[in-house]
């Protein structure tokens, strides 16, 4: 670990000057941490090599608390060289610009998801900056930059939007690898954008992740943005464009290429058209999934009290009186608007014999219940709960026939928090009130040796009221009520 704490004019954490005799180099065979936050020098360097000097950091480099650093990595003069993570086995976090000047070279490998480079890259004379970025590592490009060899693969990101929403240009001699993402700002109204220029050879396939300034989306029949050039290249590489998730719909950016109109390049990649798609966004999917979760949970719980009446029928007066039970349940569905709800239900009730004759016995009671659930959605989760009161009646005939009636009022609350494909958090909270009336009729027919058969029919009518609410990203949701009628015929 190296800490720079002072310095009036010029301060360096690592400085190697060789005077071109080929003998001066510094090697760090383990992870290196450099802190320059304590320095107030006018010119501040992390690693500075000149006149043929060399520095090799074979593993990781952490240099992320720099305070007004001039250069994080700077190589100047023929044969001057800085290698960062040369063994490709370390974590790299570098804040501050890098430069290869007048024959000096910087070679940096970022190949872990926790690795990042925040800064710009500069070239002068015959200088070089080679960057190998892979495995979801990120280059937050804070301004117009130049590199020599640039490799981008396996989910690695170059975020050109890190320039405070300006428009920057990335110029590189070569761009290779596949599966990388380049985030770009554009404005289809002024026909401006971040740009990628590949002066040497472009190979492989990279995705452009396009962000329209101010989240403006052209009308469906608009030609705004058509022809906007996003990259000019040499070589046979391919650019694709990622769909951009909005609030209510996705925006599809269709790219095309043509012979370049820019000197020194053979191919221009440009916006051909911008299309709104009907694919459900995270917001739409979650709103409908959460609504379905409430409905299916409510409907599932509507007839659970009939189980209590079965206890009264089979156990007689020994079962009457106060009762309490706890049960856990899990429901869900796959596919579009899917969900999973794991919940625990707590029920407390009391029933009593209210009428007894030779022909029948009547039990009546009331119950309170509370459910506490945890919902899962395609891109997040939430909590849900319900409170209900039920009134029930069961009449048991002397010949084994019975009639169960349940009237239930429920109030359900659901809140969710999900993240869209732009990592934006979306929350919502809504409430539904439902009523349900269930009836079950059956008859127990005793057979020999304690066996019996009990045919039964059940019918449930219900109504789950809607709600109006606004999600955190401004969607106004107007739920209508849902009518439900469920029948069942079977036997025990």
Automatic annotation (TrEMBL):
<dbReference type="GO" id="GO:0019867">
    <property type="term" value="C:outer membrane"/>
</dbReference>
<dbReference type="InterPro" id="IPR003991">
    <property type="entry name" value="Pertactin_virulence_factor"/>
</dbReference>
<feature type="domain" description="Autotransporter">
    <location>
        <begin position="315"/>
        <end position="492"/>
    </location>
</feature>
<dbReference type="Pfam" id="PF03212">
    <property type="entry name" value="Pertactin"/>
</dbReference>
<dbReference type="InterPro" id="IPR011050">
    <property type="entry name" value="Pectin_lyase_fold/virulence"/>
</dbReference>
<dbReference type="Pfam" id="PF03797">
    <property type="entry name" value="Autotransporter"/>
</dbReference>
<dbReference type="InterPro" id="IPR005546">
    <property type="entry name" value="Autotransporte_beta"/>
</dbReference>
<dbReference type="InterPro" id="IPR006315">
    <property type="entry name" value="OM_autotransptr_brl_dom"/>
</dbReference>
<keyword id="KW-0732">Signal</keyword>
<dbReference type="InterPro" id="IPR012332">
    <property type="entry name" value="Autotransporter_pectin_lyase_C"/>
</dbReference>
<dbReference type="InterPro" id="IPR036709">
    <property type="entry name" value="Autotransporte_beta_dom_sf"/>
</dbReference>
<dbReference type="InterPro" id="IPR004899">
    <property type="entry name" value="Pertactin_central"/>
</dbReference>
<dbReference type="InterPro" id="IPR051551">
    <property type="entry name" value="Autotransporter_adhesion"/>
</dbReference>
<protein>
    <submittedName>
        <fullName>Autotransporter outer membrane beta-barrel domain-containing protein</fullName>
    </submittedName>
</protein>
